[in-house]
Specification:
Layout: H1 7-30, H2 37-50, E1 54-55, E2 74-77, E3 80-82, E4 96-105, E5 108-117, H3 124-143, H4 150-163, E6 174-176, E7 183-187, E8 204-207, E9 210-212, E10 218-220, E11 227-229, E12 235-237, E13 240-245, E14 248-251
Antiparallel strand pairs: 1-4, 2-4, 3-11, 4-5, 6-7, 6-8, 8-13, 9-12, 10-11, 13-14
Pfam families: Peptidase_M24
Domain Peptidase M24: 13-246
Binding site for substrate: 83, 182
């Protein structure tokens, strides 16, 4: 299913996107050395409830997971990259943490992810990998405009990731979003320009470049959800929800001015 939102729905999407950004930044500030992943999940649950919103994750049970997910935010540490299920783990100095969050409010969902390093240790290779996903996300957003094809966005993302030397997995990528979290079209993190669905004003997309340092192969954790690099290498993931407008792309999940 591909949805095209009207003006009222777009206004709701902006509100939901702002909420997602606020929660992610609040959780980033609270993610310090010694913070437990289960506390991050608990704090996220409280913020979602306080806002009168709904989690897109807690009852999520797709075919590829051992569902339902049962938590309110994805917390992926180091070699984990996607669907990181919170567990009893305290963050250590230098951990690479990815927080991925999707919520729904007033019938419209938004989805975003951030990767960052915890504490004072900043391994250069991890900093560079996070930066590559952020640059790839910016390139995909820049390519998103009415009349562009999904392949144009995939090509822009893949050019940055591949140019930085990272293998690219095409099993999981970006997606349409609207009244539900995951919709068509699929947005691969690499592809050929000029191919695929033609973008229209009112379309919402969640673009999410992610990479693993030295492999494109994933393995599933014993929890049935968390996807990790097959080699145990570190990973990074950046995501925004955007709305296609008459003028290009509007980012709905940007942090407020003054926040990172």
């Amino acid at each position: 299913m591909i949805e095209i939102l009207n003006r009222t729905q777009l206004d709701r999407a902006r509100e939901t996107g702002a909420l997602v950004a606020d929660i992610l930044q609040a959780m980033k500030r609270r993610s310090k050395v010694g913070t437990n992943l289960l506390d991050i999940d608990k704090w996220t649950k409280a913020m979602i409830a306080e806002a009168g919103a709904l989690s897109c994750y807690v009852d999520y049970a797709p075919s590829f997971g051992r569902g339902p997910f049962g938590h309110y935010i994805c917390t992926a540490v180091n070699d984990a990259v996607l669907h990181g299920r919170p567990y009893d783990y305290r963050l250590a100095d230098g951990d690479l943490l990815t927080l991925d969050l999707a919520v729904s409010k007033a019938g419209v969902a938004a989805d975003a992810a951030i990767s960052f390093l915890v504490g004072g240790e900043k391994p250069p290779e991890s900093v560079e990998m996070i930066d590559a996903t952020e640059r790839a996300l910016a390139a995909g957003i820049a390519a998103a405009k009415p009349g562009a094809r999904i392949g144009d966005l995939s090509h822009a993302i893949g050019t940055v990731l591949g140019g930085a030397g990272y293998p690219i997995n095409t099993q999981f990528g970006g997606h349409g979003i609207g009244s539900t979290m995951h919709q068509d079209p699929h947005v691969s993190n690499t592809g050929r320009p000029g191919r695929g669905y033609k973008l229209r004003p009112g379309l919402l997309l969640a673009l999410e470049p992610w990479v693993m340092a030295d492999t494109a192969e994933l393995v599933t954790d014993a929890d049935g959800w968390t996807l990790r690099s097959a080699t145990g290498c570190r990973t990074a993931h950046s995501e925004h929800t955007i709305a296609i407008t008459e003028d290009g792309a509007e980012i709905l999940t940007l942090p407020k001015p003054g926040q990172p």
